[in-house]
Amino acid sequence: MIDALGLREQVETSGYALVPSVLDCGEIQHLLSIPESVEESSPSLRRRGGVFAVRNLLEVSPEIRELAGSPVVRRLVEPILGPKAFPVRGILFDKTPDANWKVPWHQDVTIAVADRIDVDGFGPWSIKAGVLHVQPPAAILENMISVRLHLDSCGEENGALRVIPGSHRMGKLPEQEAARIGAEEECSVCAAGAGGALLMRPLLLHASSASTTPKHRRIIHIDFASVNLPNGMKWDIEASLARRGEHLFA
Ligand SMILES: O=C(O)CCC(=O)C(=O)O
Q1: Tens digits of per-residue pLDDT, 18-45?
Q2: Whose CA is nearest to atom 8 of ligand 1?
Q3: Is residue 1 predicted with pLDDT exceeding 80?
Q4: b/e code 51-79 from CB counts within 10 Å (16+ = b)
Q5: According to a count of CB atoms within 10 Å of the terminal CB, is the N or C end of the chain lower?
Q6: What pLDDT score does 250 carry?
Q7: Is residue 60 pLDDT above 80, yes or no?
Q8: Burial of 129 (0-12, 13-18, 19+ CB in 10 A)
């Protein structure tokens, strides 16, 4: 049973929370088969050896949209963002001997949007996996939460995320400052069992090491927001589903 108030307080104070046993074995098995349901030729599938990432996951997978709207996930998101929260971006990624990487200390500062609309405080703009991205003002990122669902157990040996508790309250940090704080402040390792979830504010400083075992480390990462964008700017998922006559929660 999730203690909604405790979860909210923990995320407010530390910028993250670990929740064990969110998914059961059957749900994990089902989610592991999702890359097979994505069209072979889709540019969202990233391969090195096998598939190591599926980008634009909400766009390419109705199952992930369903997961994002499911009671198990809403019970994690709503205590933080309220009942109007909606998913805006999803990615599945693995660390394997063929696709292994480390990530330096950083904050997640970009969002996926449909069209370039120049608005004060938004920028720079970039393209990732064919999708337009922009850095929004901190106020947008402060109204977001990322849910990372672990499909394999994940400890230090296979690249668990390290975080600096409380760093989500420091605003957007220049790269050098992020590196300095990461090197000097005490970090926590977000180890999780298969089926466990990590909730994390995008501005929380985080890093991860390369995996040192041949085990999979598959994670479904879904970003949620609770605010609309200004001046008619649209979240990418909103616009791409609308073009197909679909909705987030069909
Ligand atoms: O999963 C990882 O090892 C790093 C992921 C990350 O840094 C991110 O999603 O921003």
Answers
A1: 999 999 999 999 999 998 888 877 878 8
A2: 108
A3: no
A4: bbbbbbbbbbbeebbebbeeeebeebbbb
A5: N
A6: 58
A7: yes
A8: middle
Task: Locate the domains of the chain by residue range.
Answer: 4-243
Q: For strands 197-200 and 144-150, give the pairing.
A: antiparallel
- Evaluate: CB of 242 within 6 angstroms of ligand 1: no
**Closest residue CA from atom 2 of ligand 1:** 208
Please say whether the beta carbons of 154 and 192 come within 8 A: yes
pTM over 0.90: yes
Reference 54, options 62, 63, 44, 64; nearest CA is 44
159 Cβ inside 6 Å of ligand 1: yes
Q: Is the CB of 158 under 6 A from ligand 1?
A: no
246 CA to centre of ligand 1 in angstroms: 29
Ligand 1 midpoint to CA 231 (Å): 30
Q: Are 207 and 104 in contact (CB under 8 A)?
A: yes
Q: For the domain 4-243, what is the CATH code? A: 2.60.120.620
Q: Mean pLDDT, to the nearest integer, of 218-234?
A: 96
Which ligand 1 atom sits nearest the alpha carbon of residue 91? Answer: 9
CB 147 within 8 A of CB 16: no
Closest of 106, 192, 182 to residue 148, by C-alpha: 192
Task: Give 116-168 as a DSSP string.
Answer: ----TT---EEEETTEEEE---HHHHTTEEEEEEESS-B-GGGT-EEE-TTGG
DSSP 170: G
